[in-house]
Amino acid sequence: MRPTNLILWSLLPAVAAAQSCREPQPEPYVPFSVNYDVTSLAVQPGFDTVPRLSTGFVALDEASGAVHCSWAPHAIWVIEDGGAGPMLYLVDVRNGRVMSRLQLATGWTNEDWEDLAHWTDASGQRWLGIGEIGDNNGLRPMRRVYALPEPTGIDTAGSAVQSHQPTTSKVWTYLYADGPRDVESMFADPDGRIYLVSKRDMRNRLYVLPAEPTLGGDTAKYLGDLPLYMTTAADRLQLPNGRSPIVVRSYGRLYYWDAAPSEAACDVLQRVPTRLPYTEQEAQGEIFAWLVDGTYVLLSEKAGGVSPQAHRYVRN
Prior knowledge:
Layout: H1 3-10, H2 14-20, E1 32-33, E2 52-53, E3 63-68, E4 75-80, E5 87-92, E6 98-104, E7 113-120, E8 126-132, E9 143-149, E10 161-164, E11 170-176, E12 183-188, E13 194-198, E14 205-209, E15 218-225, E16 231-236, E17 246-250, E18 254-257, H3 265-268, E19 274-275, E20 285-290, E21 296-300, E22 311-313
Parallel strand pairs: 1-15, 6-10, 11-15
Antiparallel strand pairs: 2-22, 3-4, 4-5, 5-6, 7-8, 8-9, 9-11, 12-13, 13-14, 14-15, 16-17, 17-18, 18-19, 20-21, 21-22
């Protein structure tokens, strides 16, 4: 492409980038870049400003990602990061009790599991995606996302580890288009496309994977950058009011983008967000999860020898 053409493409408005990110193979693609002051964002109304804490502590050391459980409205699925093994936990956010401990009999390894995502396919099957996406030093060129149907019909006494063999599974094996990245935030659009937000870039970067893994591997496509830093979790869910907002969290802030279910995340994240109430800081908060009633849940890793409590901010 001639230099003059490159200049013309660089001057295209953000809406052009938003349009092309919805297309299967846009050429050429112009990544977006948006700016706003994260310290002066408006507070999103409609939520309690003081969290309700679980009555007990959550007996997990390295909680790193979570999503809601579709059949237990007061519970979240939780993963731990590197070294914890291929384990999936079900936690009651009211009392902190670990209801189920599932060892996934899939052959998957846990080098650095960092977030969970969820979506429902055209057949009505709900999937949980597990992000093997952490890379503190940015040295691992290949990363993976594992997916399994949401477990049902399991023992919720929580007293013993259960072996769980999914009926089917999916694995995305991918590279980042612009080199290795440390990522801890992952969520899915309603159509199943998986989004990843980098952590350690001074402006955190947004990437997307296709709704289905490609035989031979995928490339996480770079969509644009955001004025966020050290993001640690993300989630998207259709709430009782019919909206389908996206939330990305850092250690100290919760960024909220209002959206309709039909809107693609690559369009939504080009708008200026608001911030959700976050009035009781956690020791090392790495989890954000919506519940089906519009409550949102925060959970920290264990820090200083103290187990965390689940923090719930209720929709009012």
